[in-house]
Amino acid sequence: MTKDFLNSLTLFLAILIFALGAVLATIAWTEPTSAPPAGNVPAPINVGNQAQTKEGPLTAVGALTSNTALYSPIFYDLDNTSWYINPSGTSVFSGNVGIGTTSPEGKLDIQTSAGSVAIKINTFTLRPISATELGVYDSGGNLVATFDEGS
User: Fold this and answer.
1) Which of 12, 51, 68, 76 has the most other CB atoms within 10 Å of its CB?
2) Any alpha helices (H) in the chain, and if so which ranges?
3) CA angle 4-6-7, nearest 5°?
4) pLDDT digit string, tens, across residues 65-121
5) DSSP label at 111?
6) What would the DSSP string read from start to end of 16-30?
């Protein structure tokens, strides 16, 4: 046998093995029976106007915004998960919480105008009477107690 014949035979066998491998790989591949996620891989979260659900945690290092709404059973602080907001249960905050103010000065700072209901507890309401007075009213709207800044 000549050297050229052996080189040609080697090349032919290499091409034949490669072609056989490609045919077997093509035969072995099975097309998915349904679109994700029905019995296949989960669908990715992506753009679009359809509602999408993600199981497990989702972390956003930048701003997470929505033109409609963000839904979650609980929202955890990124740096400290002992602080959280649970819309349907107990929430735990660090620092000050403000209602009617963007710069609260106490653990709970409620700013409202005189005569507006600031806090409602059962049938009683607390309303500011003036800048220095707070009134407690019963369910009939009768003033039952007054607290003055100076007393």
Assistant:
1) 76
2) 3-28
3) 65
4) 777 777 778 888 888 888 888 888 888 888 888 888 889 888 888 888 877 888 888
5) -
6) HHHHHHHHHHHHH--
Per the CB < 8 A criterion, the answer to whether 16 and 23 are in contact is: no
| DSSP-derived secondary structure letter, 149 | T
Residue matched to tokens 């409202």: 112
Distance, CA of 120 to CA of 116 (rounded, Å)? 11
Can you read off the two tokens belonging to residue 81?
A: 């998960």
User: SS3 for 114?
Assistant: coil
129 closest CA partner among 140, 108, 107, 144: 144
Q: Decide: pTM greater than 0.70.
A: no
d(CA 65, CA 62): 9
Answer with the residue of higher pLDDT: 1 or 140.
Answer: 140
CA distance 110 to 98: 6
